[in-house]
Design goal:
The protein is α/β, with parallel strands linked by helices. The protein contains eight helices and 20 strands. The strands form four sheets. Strands 8-7-6-3-2-12-11-10-9 form a nine-stranded parallel beta sheet, with helices on one face. β9, α5 and β10 form a beta-alpha-beta unit. The N terminus is likely disordered.
Length: 406
Amino acid sequence: MRAQRILITGVIALAVVGGLTPTAAQADTYVDGREFGLHIPQIANGVVPSVTYGSVRIWDAGVSWGHVEKRRGRYWWTGLDRAVQAANAQNAQILYVLGSTPTWAASKRSQGTYPNRGAASMPRRLSDWRRWVTAVVTRYGASIDAYQIWNEANLATFWQGTPRQMARLTKEANDIIRRLDPTAQVVAASSTVRLRSAFARFFPAYLRELRRVGWPVDVFAIHTYGPSTSTPALRTTYVRLARRELLAARAPRSPLWDTEVNYGIKGPGPGYPDKDIGGNKAAIYVSQTYLDSVRLGVERTYWYSWSRKNDLLGITMYTGYPGATALQTTESWLSNAIVDCRSRHVRVCRINREGVRSRVAWTSSGRAGSFVVPYYATRMCDARGRCRPVAPGTKVLIGRMPRWFG
């Protein structure tokens, strides 16, 4: 972990997450706590999640560029200081989103209103962007582990510049980060996948422009929200689509992160009203999401978000809700272990934690499948933490609810 303090610069050794090919996940993957990421909108106000997690994406927390640099060269650091201090105190590695453009810096103030007017615009002067990135990395170099260039740059809500302009911002930021903090990771601007036309218009072109300027990123990023009726099975399709685009662009062997995910969110279009997802279904979706990330080689997954029930999110991730229980349970199965997942009808992840073996099994469809209890297993637990004894060598039916055997 980084030093648990801010306002002190310096280089601190950081283990670099290994690369993946764009086409397939690795077998025998070591899973550490950083895979289990969260958004915590109230982190600057001292909110501490009641689940175990290893990384936090600081976005939608009231501390974006437009919030911090109120006027050119005049910074309100208080909120970001508090957010970084809180994450450090919770031993969570920090991914900070560098965008979006403050009103005063926007080349077109009419482009975007979130979180401020002009936020979706290319900065009028590149020098403003360079100064901002320099200020952030200089202040938090000992505390922030990774910097993401922009949020959902394929959507007009967040970016109305061109893929080439976004690649230029990426290159400029990378050069500064590499110089001031070589241990930090540079994460590409994220793209949502569910609006397929917007994804197809931006993501391949952005990759081409990144290639043109020498691939100035360590990590690629997508957001795997689906239509409000979607399931984790559709998320798998999205991950594979992104990997195909990375392969077509001849991208380097770099990790892929899912920096926002939830289910049941309204849209796209009026045919997909918002869906409230609770009970067993919430537990299934959360557990499958993190299991699939390991199975598909998505090295980090950031759930959006740790917050009380609201009308935007289909699955509530908060204390006492089934989604939070499933996150904690799945983290306890996988974290700090070597995991090998197989993609048959019954998905199976073989887990080895310092010689102690266990397995997790589930199906992505509603059709149940047969599973033989491993010879060493005497207990079966589901993603909601409900357990019962089992006999080694017996057959059990496995459905969508992930079940652990150990």
